[in-house]
Amino acid sequence: MRIFQSVGALSVACAAAIASTGCNLDVKNPTVIDAATFNPNADGTTLALSAQTNFYIAFQSVALYAGLISDELWTGAARLQTKRLAARVFASTDDINADFHAPLSLAIASNENAIGALQSGAGAASDLNLARASMNAGFALDLMAETMCAGVIQGGPQLSDAQLLDSAITRFTNAVTVATAAGTAGAAIVNASNVGLARAYLQKGDYTHASQTAALVPAAFSINVITSTNVSTQGTLGNQLYGNTVQGQIVSPQRYRINDPRLPVDSTRPGATLNGQKYVVQAKYNSYGDPIRLASGLEAQYIAAEAALHASASTAAAITLINTRRTAGGQGAYAGGTDTLSVVTELLNQRARDFWLEGKKLGDLRRNPSVALASVLTDPSGNPFYVPSTTLPSFGSTFCAPIPPQETNANPNFKP
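-> structure tokens emitted (416 positions)
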């Protein structure tokens, strides 16, 4: 049983800009653009938004599968791979790897193709389509760095996580430059790219640039991945966290079944999953059309606070943010230790609540190996999801999803 079927290249285009609240995923002629007649000015929107759709699907794959790996979700499937996933010792041949590596590779390749085609246009210096493709390539590269053991760009050589993050930083920087030149129409792309840029800097350990970039993002800013309620495409373009919930294939882990409005669950469903888990499911997404947050001013605040902790052991910003978010979650003021480790632990605990099922937790765990897993809503060994006598591995920088053979066998430039 598979939880989510990966998809190949899409022949649909989202006919709305990234800042929009609606999206039309139906096109009259869903064919590949003819390279011989491609015009960056006339065809750029179709190209950039088609590549963006690939990124939207890749993002959902990461939110789902990295959520399973980082204990944001438990799978309800019954198969050998479920046991390996539960033990976090899965093989490269397990479909979980291909199911988010392949969409990420496609998102990177299609947005890189869009960048290559659009940067030759007469108005490239302020072309929002070019800025959009650069931003989406940046997010896809950043997600690959946070989840996979290595990466690749368009069939190229193996790239380390640091190289992937450097590549993401380059794309985000270009997106900011071009979108800024476009004026007020590019504001959403500028803000989203600055969040992504700060995120990449933080993951890389460049805390000065992470803080500086995060400070540029307005506190109220928020932007989403758009999903579709269209029945014919909801299996690929709809909200897949909701889709897998209604199919009974994912359930909420025990540590997420707490009284916090940021972690809504539904425990009223009768019965159990195929592998015997009681149906306590996420209720954060309740339709195929529910959007998923991609970047926000809140995330920028978390990035700045964590960067200050790591760079200078300054706890003031983190404790202020912690108390604000504890209030949002119905908790009292923070009364724990004020040393750096205690504060970063509580900061990640609040991050886990605020960004549940938004594709961030695995990167958080890999970035902070000194933080106790139980403190960031991670169930210990012995709880039902884990196989008997299995010790939960360390989620340090060396923990990652192995590259699937679909990449290593088909790409002669990739040398694992």
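The longest strand covers residues 292-296.
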